[in-house]
């Protein structure tokens, strides 16, 4: 086969391929209307009413996940208190390995403060933190993040239950009352929930005892 014969064969084959391609192309054009019908179906009202998978997963998520979402919003909320007011007091709560009420305690474990007062959590012994377990609606959750001292100002009235995360099962927790006890009933059930996770029998009812003693 010489060069000329080769070129003739080559161009012939290419031409045939081009014709086959155009035939397929035109057949595809004929098929398109049925594809459009399918598109109209996926765009119709019934299909549109089905929410995206991600959104479905979100709305089906647990309550705690929703709380986390709310937490991140709440944390950036501005305090309703005047930070420089001379009327506000700063109280001290110590985090202790050993206190007058036994091992692993906040001291005092119950404290009553006025609206816009602050509490300075002092990590007298290392390895403790103070984090919100339950608090009034719309309050700002707190977390001392194992800092040696961390001051939290309370701008929302009501009862707060907080814990030391690593020692919660030893009932290392505390209750703060900011002015009133408007969320008393809610707090009662939150304390029950918390105490279900306390593993040390002698201190199992530490928080509910504290609650009964102080919340009228
Ligand atoms: Cu602790």
How would you describe what is shown here?
This protein is an alpha/beta fold. The protein is 40% helix and 21% strand. It has two domains: 73 residues, no CATH class; 125 residues, Immunoglobulin-like (Sandwich), CATH 2.60.40. The strands form two sheets. Strands 2-1-4-6 form a four-stranded mixed sheet, with no helix packed on it. The chain has a four-stranded mixed sheet with strand order 3-8-7-5, covered by helices on one side. Helix 5 packs antiparallel against helix 6. It starts with a helix and ends with a helix. The protein binds copper (II) ion (CU). Copper (II) ion binds next to loops.
Brief sketch in words of this structure:
By secondary structure, this protein is of the alpha/beta class. It has two domains: 73 residues, no CATH class; 125 residues, Sandwich (Immunoglobulin-like).
Radius of gyration: 33 Å
Mean pLDDT: 83
Structural class assignment: alpha/beta
- Say what the CATH topology of the largest domain is: Immunoglobulin-like
Strand order of the largest sheet: 2-1-4-6
Poorly predicted spans: 50-74
List the SSEs and their pairings.
Layout: H1 3-42, H2 45-49, H3 53-59, H4 63-75, E1 90-99, E2 102-107, E3 110-113, E4 118-122, E5 131-134, E6 149-153, E7 158-163, E8 173-178, H5 184-196, H6 206-214
Helix pairs in contact: 5-6
Bound molecules: copper (II) ion.
